[in-house]
Amino acid sequence: MVIVQHGKEPSRPSSRAARTRPANNPEVIRVKKEDFAPHTRYTITWRDPQGKLRPANIYPYRLYDQFMVARMTDQSGMLRKFAYADIVKIVKVIPVAKEDQFYIPEAVLSEGTWAGRTSMERYSSSPHMGK
Hints:
Blueprint: H1 15-19, E1 40-47, E2 53-63, E3 67-72, E4 79-83, E5 87-95, H2 106-109, E6 119-120
């Protein structure tokens, strides 16, 4: 696409503008609940609340229809609610062996607990790691 302004040389749009796709583009692949499994490590690209794309390493504990509860393994280790619509792509998937899985009480993972929150500080342990 070439932009022509009266009395000026034709110019090309910025690379950022060239990379932007319309929201209704059929080529855009949406991430869904079925793309994830509990107790699996993922490297993802997600859109933060300010709209910026961010890389993240996550460990999902529970999958719900509109969101999942996952630990941010590359940052503070906080539990976080991720809407599937905010996840742009899955970069890497690493299954976790049964003995290396981390556990959190059921009450902390319930859907009602996450209705009004986006994150939570919570320690978890793995019996295999001696914790």
